[in-house]
TrEMBL record:
UniProt keyword Transmembrane helix, yes or no: yes
Transmembrane segments: 12-34, 54-77, 89-105, 125-142, 149-166, 178-195, 207-227, 280-299, 306-325, 455-476
Protein name: Uncharacterized protein
Keywords tagged on the record: Membrane, Plasmid, Transmembrane, Transmembrane helix
Coiled coil: none
The keyword Transmembrane is assigned to this record: yes
Top-rank taxon, per record: Bacteria
Amino acid sequence: MNVSVVTRNSLSLPVGLGWTVCAAGALGIVATYWDESWHTDIGRDSFWTPAHLMLYGAMAVVGLAIAAWGVRVLVALRSLRATLSQRPVVTACLGGVTALAAAPIDNAWHDAFGRDAVEWSPPHMLVIFAAIAIALGALAGIDPNAAALRAAAGALLLANAEALVFEYETGVPQFTETLYLPIMLAAGLLAAHVIGRAVPGGAPVTLAVAGYAALRLLIIAALATLGRSTPDLPLAVLGLAVYDLPLPGRLARPAAAALATATLAWGASALRLASAHPDAVAITAVPVIVISTLVLALGSSRRSRAALPAAVAVLISGSALATGAGRAHAHDPGQGPAVATVDLTADTDGRGQITMTARLTDTGDCEHTTPIRLAARRAGQTFTGDLRQTGLCRYAGTVTVPGSGRWFTYVELREGDDNTEAWLPVDAGTAGQLTQTRVLYRPAGTGAGHRSAEIAAGTPIYLVGIALLGLGAAAVRRSPHRHHGA
């Protein structure tokens, strides 16, 4: 028997384990969207919610499958040093360990800084980085001849990469909406490049896009069945399929994909088929469309290659403009200690006017409670209105916001010497009424010292995640792949 063939087969991710990773990874994506809708519709909750359990249960299954792969490679090579030189399995194993470690890190973060629903908080981002690393390691470790499994892993990679912007696509942007398109484009194009290299066949990116779009549609149907908020239709990501076109030149395919994706994102937002505001999307979409069109028109000439720095500059400047457009942190300050229970009712006229009433239900006569204001927050913007006392433990106020979209509308009260708040997610563009019982709590993370502590604690977490991505990219770059038509 050919020893080299036996060794190569022994080092690859077994087909059964590979499909387990892809299926459980897809379940983790479903759980991520469920968790976001849970936080939006019900509010912040404990670690032990069904969505959290589903998410970390899925990651545990992935971790066990990856661990089994690691043991298989170790047995085949009979050397720990040789096993550690196998980048695909090492990347996937480190991703699995990191994903599982993120659960207690997230719980500790909430204990230290308050419970929040911010996707880009370091523990939440660590899960996304780990999931991307697992997908990269698995993709690099799958036998190049296992075309269907590699295609499934490519779809999982795209889903995990696009999860970076899922708050924007679920109508709950914590940061300015100008950030949406540059991050979505960067993540999507990088994923398309990896998929185009690693997945055999004539249309690898199209297969990944189709798989991801089908998963998103399944998520929408499942959440609608549960009566939860649903994400946007996956329209902009369809533009990445253009990456498979047999265009000449190294830059033509990414330029065409960027052009199609930016056009679809802008059009979807303009037609109100997406949550992001069209003006925010246009800041990046317009220059991307212009530069991509120039790249395609110039073909493979030197002037076309000179447009690459311009395209990169557009994405960077779009992010910079976004950062300058609003405060550099999310609108959710995190939930501190609970103070009372409050009945909240929000009435909207469908044209941006929100009227909120609040009734405290378990605080006695409320003699030490005074109203501060009504605040509506979305994507780095805050609009305020007066809040007045209308009776015993009852308060009311009105705030006007521009446009439509979901606004997190806060009743802010002072309990003795402490500020407290409670909120409802209100769609300002739809006339109607929303009534829920919520927790009145002291906000966490509002002080400068608290913010500095978050940065100090979060920086090493982000660095670990970025290192994982670098290791995964190297694993794919050095992995064997079956050549296919460009």
